[in-house]
Amino acid sequence: MFDKSKIGHSFPLFTAEVYRNKIHELALAVGDTNPVYHSREAAQAADYDDVPLFPTTATMFSFWSNPQRNSELAKIGINVMRILHGEEEYEYLASIHPGDVLTGVTTIVDGKSRKGKNGSLMDIVTTETRYTNQHNQPVLNARTTLVVRE
Amino acid sequence: MTTNTQASHKLYYDDVQVGNELPKLVKPPVTHLQLVRYAGASGDFNPLHTDPTVGETIGTGGIIAHGMLIMGFVGQLLSDYAGPSTLRKFGVRFKGMTRIGDVITCTGTVTEKYEADGEARIAGKVQAVDQNGDVKVVGTFIAALPRRS
């Protein structure tokens, strides 16, 4: 059962450096062969300053750059082995470039318990991670809804 | 891998009409190797996406793909259509599990054209379905586009 008193709780902030090679690796795994995601030269030839962010790049910030994510969720009583991903939403506020160093803060913004179709309880927990860059400019918000089966 | 024929094509606000459909993106079948590769790229090493024995134990009936991989496919659809770095908002709801061998097709429609924050923007809806038409992901997007003039 989700503890509603955790709504508003923020986790310790984390740092996410943006790596050109990781954008390349993500686009490769997805199978997007658009050359702008794979080399700076190709990106510049298409009038970008550098390799642009692949639309779902922020997923790497929350996993690679925040390895304590699961233990932080476990600390507030979420069974991380029973998590399913319900929703994901990105709000792109300003451009992000390779070499930028972002700071992320994740807050629990909503949470409730619901009965599933088979009568079992599930928790629905929404987090929001706000990223700012090294100039303290807000650049991206990521909203994640997790479904935790009990 | 799909070939990208749209890489150098630029989409202008003036040329988009409400109701326009995004060029459909049909991905090659999802493979186990792709999930291992995606785990390494994204940093999501939850074994239910890579280890068949874990998939059996927790009752998902084998390996299931990362939902975020399918969101990535839809991201590619949007990037192919509107261009890299044009997105202002992109959100999805995960509706069903994707398994190895599934062929995912991504589609979308423009639902709105408007101006906001000094930008010309389009909004639309997107979805990803498998070879049986089962819906995996539904979502919405907002993109900012250049004007011709």
Descriptive notes:
The complex is a heterodimer of chains A (150) and B (149). Chain A is α+β, with helices and mostly antiparallel strands and 150 residues long. Chain A folds into two domains: 4-18 and 57-149, Hotdog Thioesterase (Thiol Ester Dehydrase, Chain A, Roll); 20-56, no CATH class. Helix content of chain A is 20%, strand content 35%. Chain A is built from four helices and five strands. A five-stranded antiparallel sheet of chain A has the order 1-3-4-5-2. The longest helix of chain A has 11 residues, at 20-30. Chain A is elongated. The model of chain A has no long low-confidence stretch (mean pLDDT 93). Chain B is α+β, with helices and mostly antiparallel strands and 149 residues long. Chain B has a single domain (14-145), classed as Thiol Ester Dehydrase, Chain A (Roll). Chain B has three helices and five strands. Chain B has helices at residues 32-42, 52-57, 67-82, and strands spanning 25-26, 87-94, 105-116, 119-129, 135-145. In chain B, strands 1-3-4-5-2 form a five-stranded antiparallel sheet, covered by helices on one side. The longest helix of chain B is centred in the middle third of the chain and has 16 residues, at 67-82. Chain B is elongated, with a radius of gyration of 17 Å. Chain B starts with 24 loop residues before the first strand and ends with a strand. In chain B, 38% of the residues are buried. At the A-B interface, α1, α3 and β2 of A face α1, α3 and β2 of B.
